[in-house]
Amino acid sequence: MVLESMLNPKNAEDKPWHVFIVSIVYTFIAVFFASLLFPSQASILSVALITIILVPFFQRMFILEEKKEDRAAHKLTKGNLFTRHAKTIYVFSAFFLGVIVAMSFIFIFFPDNNLFSLQTETIQGFSTAAATQSGNFWLYFQNNTQVMVLVYVLSILFGAGSVFVLGWNASVIAVYVGTISRSFIAQGFAPSAAYLFGVPLGLSSILLHGIPEIVAYFIAGLGGGILSVGILREKWGGKNFHLILKDSLILLLVAECLIFAAAFIEAV
Question: DSSP letter at 235?
C-alpha cells in the first residue's frame, strides 16, 4: 500500500509530513467507519480505530528508537539523549496535528451530534472547571501529570498504547477549535473561511501552555515506548537495559518539568 510505505519509521523520521498526511487520511477513514458501524458510540470508536490503525507503525518506530539506545550504549553513535530522539517528537507532532486538522474539518463540514458527543461533554466540563478553578496551578499540574503518567504507563504496557490517549486529546482539541470556527459561521462567515480562520485562531489561544503540555505527553510516550521494547529485547541488568531505563526515566522527568511549566503558564 502507498500509505503503508509512507509510514516506514525511517522514512517518517526524515519526512514527518508523510505522517501528517497519512494521519489525516486514516482519521477520515476511522470516523467514517465508526459512524457507519456504531453511530451512537462514534465519538470514542473513531479514536479507537485511529489507534488500531496507527499502533503498528508507532511500535516499529519505538523498536527503531530502542536500537539507537543500543548503539549509544556501545558508543557507536554521537549526540545526547535528546538529539538521538528529536525526530520522533516531530513524528508525534505530525500525527497529532493530522488528527486535529481532519477531525476539526469533519466537525465543521459534517455536523453530527453523535460523532463528537464525548469530546463536546469534555470541553463543557473543562469550561465549567475553568470558571470555578481559574488560576489553580496545582489543579492543572495534578490533572496534566495524571495524563502524562497514563501515557508513560500505557506505552510501557502496550508499546504504543499511548497513541489512544494522544488521539483522544487531539480529538478534544479538534472539537474546541471547531467550535470556534462554528461561531464564525454563526456570524455569517462561509464554512471554508471559518475553518481556515478559526482553526489557527483556536490553536493559537492554547499555544503558550498547550505546546509544553503536549510535548510532555510526546516525550513520556517516547520514554515508555523505548522502555517497553527494551524490557522485551534486552537482558535485565545488562548495560543496554540500564541505559534504556536511565534514559526512559530522564525523559519522564523532562516531561514532568514541561508539565510544571505548562501548568504555571495556564494558571497565570
Answer: P
Distance (Å, whole) CA 261 – CA 256: 9
The three cell numbers of residue 191 are 464554512
Count the helices and strands in the chain (H runs, E runs): 11, 0
Distance CA 114, CA 133 (A): 29
Provide the 8-state DSSP code for 107.
H
Least Cα distance to 175 among 139, 218, 121 occurs for 121
Alpha-carbon dihedral 42, 44, 45, 51, rounded to 10 degrees? 140
Identify the CA nearest to 182 among candidates 204, 198, 203: 198
Q: What is the DSSP letter of 38?
A: -
In 3D space, the residue among 232, 195, 212, 231 whose CA is nearest the CA of residue 104 turns out to be 195
Residue 172 to residue 3: CA distance in whole angstroms: 25
Q: Cβ atoms within 10 A of the Cβ of 165, count?
A: 21
- Cβ–Cβ < 8 Å for 9, 64: yes
Q: How far apart are CA 30 and CA 54, in angstroms?
A: 11
The span from the CA of 152 to the CA of 166, in Å, is 11
pLDDT digits (tens, 9 = 90+) for 59-97: 888 888 888 877 777 666 666 777 888 888 899 999 999
Dihedral angle, C-alpha 17, 19, 20, 25, nearest 10 °? 130
Q: Do 244 and 254 touch, CB atoms closer than 8 A?
A: no
Q: How far is residue 181's CA from residue 196's CA, in Å, rounded to a whole number?
A: 8
What are the DSSP E strand ranges found in 14-136? none
Instruction: Report pLDDT digits (tens) over 112-132.
Output: 767 898 998 888 877 666 666
201 phi and psi angles, rounded to 5 deg:
-65, -45
Residue 238 near residue 74, CB atoms below 8 Å: no
